[in-house]
Amino acid sequence: MINRIRLLLLSSFCVFLIQSSVFAYQQDSTSTEDELPSEEKIADPTDSNYLPNSLKDYNEAYYSLTRLNNPLGFPPNKFNLQTPQATLEHFIISCRNKKFKDAAYALNLNLMPNTISEKEAIDLAQKLYFVMDQRVAIDWHGLPDRPDGQVDIRTTTNQAVAGEPRRSVVFGETNIEDRDIIFRLQRVKYQEYGAFWLISANTVENTDELYQVYGPTFLDRHMPTWSQAQIGTVPLWKPVLTILLLIVSYLLGKVVILLIRKIAKSFNKPIILALSKRLGVPAALATGVLFFYITLNNLISYSGAFSSTIYALLLAVVIASITWFFMRILDFAMRYVAENKIGDVTSENSHESRQLFTYLSVARRILTFTVVIVGTAIILSQFRSLEKLGISMLASAGLATIILGIAAQSTLGNIIAGIQIALTKPARIGDTVIINDRWGYVEDIRFTYMIVRTWDLRRLIVPLKTVISDTFENLSITSPHSINEIEFFVDYRVDVDKLRTKFKELVENSEEWDEEHPPMLQVTEMTEKSLKLRAICSASTATIAWELHCKLREEMVAYIKELEEGIYFSRSRVELKEPHFNAENLKKSDK
What we know:
The chain is an alpha+beta fold. Helix content is 49%, strand content 15%. 28% of the residues are buried.
């Protein structure tokens, strides 16, 4: 039931994203045109001749051309192409009004074959507009509206900042497979005419290739007329088909879960059954979202400024679900090895088991951290705005490194300390330690801290840097064997040999004694009031030694109490040379 709710929520979320992007950010698209340009290229370069290079003298403010747009000629004066923003506005508005010939005057066709016709130039304008409408989000606020391509920047004194003129301006970008495609406007000058702005020849040259990738789908071209009814500016069939694809994706996810469980049951092995339960939901999610992404991207061409973000977001969900899938596999494998291949780590005699479990725990967390980082990096790479952020951060790498080092010093130090602990093994899971005068067991070693379970079932959270840099006691690092001492104070008149004999008898009769160290009782100190005795006992583990220590203390106190009614316990003595309150003094005072 929980899995169904998860998949249903994911489907609803995807519907919400798509519908909100379509209806909240509506934009005209040529995908509903009755006639679309062919997906074939305008001209085959192998069958066409190219004119000589049109670039003339170099000038920092513009590109000087020897020719301009053979099939169309010089743009009429009625068209405003004086600034980058004006040129792009002319191109888009003309295309929206289906005046593609007027829009073609904003293109630099100098890299096209000299056999290109006027109709082919018009088709190029229509194709470029379709691609821009589908995949390019234009930042109009950042597009210069000055002939020199500069952006007006004013200081606190309200004075304009002068700068060098620009002859090339980027207004968008996309990619084809692994190649980035940049959309540019360029300032050109032809003969004695004034300089003006056109969409660059390189951008126009890439139009056919872009159109083949991002052009109208089969459904765009062959859907019946009745399905072209508009909801805002979007044809009715697109949101309807999107919802149907969501339903199919959800059902596909359910089928994947059933198939995985059925295949697992056919093997009739507990490990495969357990693995199928952990991998069913991630596999279903990855399959359903991947199917939805592929079909949406190939069957339905949404347009608008945010369409590219929607596709990138869907791809990010696919990558996240696949990352989750691999994390489940990794987690299951580590847990299976820990539970079935490693012995009991709670026993203090299991040195190898505790060591292997520590290695496994640290490796599991490092691998999980690595998978998450790789998955996150792939997801972030799908958003071009975040790529720009990354480039700008690399440009200021010195400052970013200092800030990151200061902010994450503690966290990174603890992570590195965790790797040091795995290599040098000052503490392992299951070890008995004394940290800050607190006795306990190492219960777990995480990314940045160690969990110590104390004798009263509390948990100490110890940063791993503390474990590496500070001193602490590990009672089982080489051997669990432990020696404890009992200290007690007795009167000077006690027979120490009698106490020594009794202590030896008690130790030898104790089941907890491991016979590794002989019982020993010594006089370690003399004070003005008593003798200080130390009795030493040993046991196989620190826990057993502590229990033996407490039992022997109790038995020795009981034995001393029985010796001549306890007169050998330490006591204070006071000697009075002359009594102050005798009978004679009282009689004298009465007279």
